[in-house]
Amino acid sequence: AVPGYGFIFTNWTGDIATNRALLTFAMRSNMVLRANFMDVMKPVVSITSPLANARLTNGTVTLQGHASDNKGVVQVLYQLGNGPFQLATGTTNWSALLSLVPGPNLVRVKSVDAAGNESLPVSETLTYVVLSRLTVNITGSGTVTPNLNGQLLEVGEPFSMTAAPGVGFVFSNWIGGVTAATPQLPFRMQSNLVLFAQFVPNPFIPAIGNYNGLFYETNGVLNESSGFFRLTLADHGAFSGAVTLAGITTPFTGQFDVAGKAQERIARLGLSALDLSLQLDSTDGTRQIIGTLSDGAWVAELLADRAWSQSTDHPYYGYYTLVIPAEPDAEIGPAGFGHATVMVDAAGNISLLGKLADGQMVGQTVAISEKGQWPLYLSLYGGKGSILGWITFTERSADNLNGLLSWIKPSVAGAAYYPAGFTNETEAAGAMYVPPATNRIFNFSAGQVVFSGGNLGQPLTNSVILDPLNRVINLSSNPMVFAINPANGTFTGNFRLPGTSVLKSFDGVLVPSQQTGFGLFFGTNQSGAVRFEAAP
């Protein structure tokens, strides 16, 4: 048995049954033999119209094509998108009426012959182009580019526009058929789409400037969750700044929305990121920024005041002396008086230079706020400790500046002074210092210098005279040198430990409004206090 084109031999049936094509047999009376062949050729099908990737402006289209087979096609089936296969009209020449949806439409076609063989499917994409007019409205003062208002755009296609505010305005948001809070608006065209670009009067102009502040947990200041914050605000709400935490300063940038809110994540090298949440008072009221800073384990409250924005005539311009009082219990912390000189220049910039009562030299340069608030922050001991607090400038007669400070020192094995560390709170205070002309710094001539703490055991008092030239003359038998620097209100000197030849140096500052000088000296493992005051 020899098969025809598109067929294969399957078997012989009848009086002899075999699947061998070559049949050898002995003829018998009335013998019947049947050679069986099977159609195995798949039909073929093609699409002739519309052409592949055609872009059509009519949603109803007639799909046409051809199909063929060695024995004949019995049906042609078509599929639109993910729908079911349906029967086309005709076979050799076939057609089907399609209802397209806007955008790309995938069409598949296959043919079937009498033996049930299916052709390989063929497919093409037809795009139904639906045009619709875009309406773009603008509220406030601003522009949108490119200007697509009133243009016919293809539905389903991607487009983008960017809003730019006019003078004195800022972008607020997009509303309408698509909403967004960013000036750039990517969107896909929809039928009869209406968009609104909203601009509002610039709320940031009254708030432009530099802000400085502090952050710490409200239930207790800890070195690992407290520090210094600074931010510079530009005229359209963009800002840059930095946080200083545990001795490491990390910069950040961001953007306030028109409500004065901002959320930023600050990445840190080798450390967990910080989440910064800010609220700006942009109504020229408090001139503050409040918010929180968190690493996920702790949450610190943040407050920053705007710095003086003029280059001259700051209301607190001048020189000051500052005292960080002694700790009454020398076993807990230093017993000496930490002290510093402070200068506020005409632009409101503070320069602090001084010494803490454990001998740590300190310095800070920062801008005072318009309201006379000074965010004092000093990172100490290689970032493992700190001292911070808000110092307020006032018009009080006894002290022109004061504030509660938190001072944290870690334990340091082998340290000469306070190796166990401490956490202290102390009320710092100071006053304006005006160098004397021809007058005494203090309103007394008979005075005393009292030394206490510093492993002395009993306090030591030296009687002195303050002469008209502001020289301190020792009247006691115990040797002491006390020298005043009238230019900046500081003093230095030394005294001899009773019963020894050991000289101890000391230093401090004068506070004329309190008629007292405050300073410190160092004993064996403790600091001691120095007071220069009127004789009783």
How does this model look, in words?
The protein has no helices and 42 strands. The strands form nine sheets. An eight-stranded antiparallel sheet has the order 22-21-20-19-26-25-24-23, with no helix packed on it. It has an eight-stranded antiparallel sheet with strand order 30-29-28-27-34-33-32-31, with no helix packed on it. It has an eight-stranded antiparallel sheet with strand order 37-36-35-42-41-40-39-38, with no helix packed on it. The N and C termini lie far apart (141 Å).
Question: Can you describe this structure in just a few lines?
Answer:
By secondary structure, the protein is mainly β. 0% of the residues lie in helices and 55% in strands. The mean pLDDT is 93.
How far apart the termini lie comes to: 141 Å
Number of strands: 42
Portion in beta strands: over 45%
Number of helices: 0
Q: Helix content range of the residues, please? A: under 10%
Structural class: mainly beta
Main beta sheet: strand number and arrangement?
Answer: 8 strands, antiparallel
Unreliable spans: none
Shape: elongated
Q: Radius of gyration over alpha carbons? A: 45 Å
Spatial strand sequence of the major β-sheet:
22-21-20-19-26-25-24-23
Please tell me the overall pLDDT.
Answer: 93
Protein traits:
536 residues; mainly beta; 8-stranded antiparallel beta sheet
Give the SSE map.
Blueprint: E1 7-14, E2 33-39, E3 44-49, E4 55-56, E5 60-68, E6 73-80, E7 86-87, E8 93-99, E9 103-113, E10 122-128, E11 131-133, E12 135-139, E13 142-145, E14 152-154, E15 158-165, E16 169-176, E17 184-188, E18 194-201, E19 209-216, E20 227-233, E21 238-245, E22 248-255, E23 261-268, E24 271-280, E25 288-294, E26 299-306, E27 318-324, E28 338-344, E29 349-355, E30 361-367, E31 373-380, E32 385-393, E33 401-409, E34 422-432, E35 446-453, E36 460-466, E37 472-474, E38 480-485, E39 490-496, E40 503-511, E41 516-522, E42 527-534
Parallel strand pairs: 4-10, 12-18
Antiparallel strand pairs: 1-2, 3-5, 5-8, 6-7, 6-9, 9-10, 11-14, 13-15, 15-17, 16-18, 19-20, 19-26, 20-21, 21-22, 23-24, 24-25, 25-26, 27-28, 27-34, 28-29, 29-30, 31-32, 32-33, 33-34, 35-36, 35-42, 36-37, 38-39, 39-40, 40-41, 41-42
